[in-house]
Design goal:
Largest sheet: 5 strands, parallel
Number of helices: 9
Mean pLDDT: 92
Radius of gyration: 17 Å
Helix content: 40-55%
CATH class: Alpha Beta
CATH architecture: 3-Layer(aba) Sandwich
Number of strands: 5
CATH topology: Rossmann fold
Strand content: 5-15%
Strand order of the largest sheet: 2-1-3-4-5
Number of domains: 1
Length: about 180
């Protein structure tokens, strides 16, 4: 179980990231429930914690995120999670995102396109604090034109940098995705 020191650390980080001096009693209780909940406990107790980023679309993309999470959870000592798995306890979701990203050993953006809010998340993890943890599962498309239809310049440049380091695993089918997952550290 997470120690009280972990809870104190999350309180301090929340105040710092939220730029607030104090938390209300309700905020303290919500954060305490989140930190001592099953998902956060899994994160801090795992030998390897995987934070998966991607698009929640109530469809195929979200189904793939859940399948990737399940495969990674099957690894010995591993725990994989999505942001939505941790109860809402923070007023601002960027605070929650950074608290979860700080505790991840591996951050895995699952890139199928750049539609949606996960583009902000990708911008944050491209920063120096998180970059060493990032390994990308990137969907490939048959032509360069198709690729440009699905991705804009922001992730393309960062993916190129990570690719030079061998941290981008491309897939274009469910079988190729399964093989790409196996290449993650």
């Amino acid at each position: 179980m997470a120690e009280d020191s972990e809870l104190a650390s999350v309180f301090d980080e929340t105040r710092e990231l939220s730029a607030t001096e104090t938390l209300t009693p309700e905020e303290y209780q919500a954060i305490k429930r989140a930190v001592f909940g099953d998902v956060f406990q899994g994160i801090v107790q795992a030998e390897t914690a995987y934070f998966l980023l991607g698009r929640y679309d109530d469809g195929e993309k979200e189904r793939r995120l859940e399948a990737i999470k399940a495969r990674l959870d099957d690894r010995d000592g591993a725990f994989a999670y999505l942001m939505k798995d941790v109860p809402e306890a923070w007023e601002f979701w960027p605070t929650k995102f950074r608290i979860l990203a700080d505790r991840a050993d591996v951050i895995v953006p699952v890139l199928e396109d750049t539609d949606g809010s996960h583009e902000w998340e990708f911008g944050v993890v491209s920063g120096p604090n998180y970059r060493p943890k990032v390994h990308v599962l990137k969907r490939g498309y048959p032509t360069e034109a198709d690729e440009h239809d699905h991705f804009d310049a922001l992730p393309a440049q960062f993916v190129d940098v990570l690719d030079r380091d061998g941290r981008v695993f491309r897939w274009d089918s469910e079988a190729a995705l399964a093989a790409a997952i196996e290449k993650l550290p």
